[in-house]
Amino acid sequence: MVSRSFVIAVFARKNSHYCSTINREEQLITALSKELDIEALFTIGYNGTNVIKGLKEKLSKTRKSIQDLLDDVLRSGRDRDLILDELTEVLILSDIGYATAEKIIAAVRTDIRKSDSVDSIRSALQAALTGLLLPYSGDEIIPKAGSVYLFVGVNGGGKTTSLAKLAARFKEKGLDSLLVAGDTFRAAAREQLSIWGKRINSPVIQGPYEADPASVVYDAVQSYKARGTDLLLIDTAGRVHTNANLMNELEKIRRVLGREIEGAPHEIFLVLDASIGQNAVHQAREFLKFSGLTGIILTKLDGTAKGGSVVGIVDELKLPIRYIGVGEGLEDIHPFLPKEFVDALLS
Ligand SMILES: Nc1nc2c(ncn2[C@@H]2O[C@H](COP(=O)(O)OP(=O)(O)O)[C@@H](O)[C@H]2O)c(=O)[nH]1
Ligand SMILES: [Mg+2]
């Protein structure tokens, strides 16, 4: 039985496929009427409660640190304005970032009255956070055959792991991937992708050690075309992100792809490590110089108390968070759903 109150709608159109979270049937109908060239629509019953429960566990460090601070502040019985000042600090301590924290508290301030209870302050905070995240929430990507995805970001951020997790996720949806080891500078990096490839039963293309990544990508594209694999997922090196060389290298990879396959790369994911908090925002700014990023994959939200950085990252970069990484296992990647995320942190 499909839940009437919470369904995921999967739209299959001629040229793109995407999946949306729809809370109400009216929204579903509105969304449908906008999609004139829909070929198919199917809904999947979705147990929102279980998703939030799982996320709560994965996000427990951030959750606990925000909740503890919030409880202290809200129980203090102080004047409302003082409480709001302290809430700003709570948000900053959660790595949300100063400017974003101020913006959120300004929204909370207009939403509550002097007499309002602690619970309504908490709900106003929840609403303000969700409101800020919603416009940049990335719908789950349901790739179509022929898509090429490029993964960029600094070393250690989780590019290779996220690429493997997504290849496994796409395989479950019936699409095979060819993986490309574009990080030719670290022997271990090439080795790591081969191991993942074996585990998920996906072929891996790798060039010689220290080969020009763009030439490895060129060869990989020829192999991809010859084999007719559904998707091409390309890992890249992420030495020093401030290094102009790296950006030139990525630019060259992109040119090769665009020349060889129409519209490629179809997605460029910036992979960021949430556990470094505000530093992830600084790193991301460097990568914005490499134009064409289509979304963020935010990793390591499981092991950190700095999960608040999600909010600052979205607010600063105005890029959708497509997926979040919540562990080292293949299944530890989830589409980013703002409401569930905020509920998991605050409810
Ligand atoms: N806890 C946790 N660890 C992760 C996550 N994503 C990646 N890692 C780990 O972070 C380390 C670096 O990841 P890797 O994919 O090699 O990063 P890359 O250098 O950007 O390719 C590895 O030990 C991964 O297992 C995540 O979501 N949660
Ligand atoms: Mg790597």
How is this structure best described in words?
This protein has helices at 25-34, 48-58, 60-75, 80-93, 98-111, 118-133, 159-172, 187-200, 213-227, 244-260, 278-287, 309-317, 338-346, and strands spanning 7-13, 17-22, 38-45, 140-141, 148-152, 177-182, 204-206, 231-236, 267-273, 295-299, 321-325, 333-335. Helix 9 runs parallel beside helix 10. The chain has 13 helices and twelve strands. It is elongated and about 70 Å long. It has 347 residues and is α/β, with parallel strands linked by helices. A hairpin with a 7-residue loop joins strand 11 (321-325) and strand 12 (333-335). An eight-stranded mixed β-sheet has the order 7-6-8-5-9-10-11-12, sandwiched between helices. Bound molecules: guanosine-5'-diphosphate and magnesium ion (MG).
Brief summary of the model shown:
This protein is α/β, with parallel strands linked by helices. It has 13 helices and 12 strands.
